Amino acid sequence: MKKLLFFALGFLLLSGSVIAGGTTNYPVTVKNGNRDILFNAAPKRVLTNGDSNIIELMFVLGLEKHLIGYAGFPYYGYEISPRYQNKLKSVPLASEGYIKLENLLSVNPDFFLSGYWYGLDIPGDCSENCITPEELNKYGINSYAISESLVRVMKKAPVSMEDTYTDIRNLGIIFNVQDRAEKLIREYKDRIKTITRKVSRINRPLRVFIYTTGKETPGTAAGQAMPNALVKLAGAENIFDDIKDSWVIVSWEEVVGRNPDFILILEYGKFPGENHKQFVLDSPALKGVNAVMNDRIFIMRVEDAYTGPRAVKGLEIMAKAFYPDLF
Length: 327
Fold this sequence. Notes:
This protein is an alpha/beta fold. The chain contains 12 helices and 15 strands.
């Protein structure tokens, strides 16, 4: 046992990560999927790109002083949490949409926090003008891809809360705020236990259709998307859990055939929930679906169902919507 403990401590010291008291000893190497990223010091000029859950990782860890800009989500109709709106006002908008390489270099970051398909391009698909970790390294810029997005460049387990924990823990190491990161993770796990304890009494899980986009052909979150993981934690079942993909397009015929008990609408700026709820209620094809017959249709913000600091809140919203009698 002592030998194992000595070996574990030796590994941590060599990797420069978690030291007694939660202090980062630089240089430190952080694993990001199939990449090892070396940090000689905590980044000082951070640019985030993608949906609002990415910049919220910085805010929840109290790292806003490191931010020099953000890009992405305002243009696509996504919103930041109300609790961070004042903090966001002090951060410059570097690009309305996902940032291009030239604009990125003009703000001179030393760290780019994003994700594949959120602003980081898939390596091998492009060169020079594309934003890949390899291209950014040429300019001395480190990059980190949120764990959920790694499925686009490597094989990994379906997205879950573990991806959020990994990102918070890694950023805690990178910025030497490990104690704060671990405290957050413990808090999230405790809140999840409270929910799962209550929904464990359910005998027959609700079958849920997660409605994300479109009217002629609906979009949904399938078996490898974060809403699927949250629906499961909330004691229900996603009717498209069997599709081994993340965000996909299905058909209304498939929805009718799978006959959901509950329709969960994930809304964002360009996808107003009330409009799409009315569409569902008015659709002749959906009249016989259990969720429509029983008026079990619920709207929530899509950002509360993403990987990131708001995922636990999203889980709580879902569980209370699915099983109000338990809360």
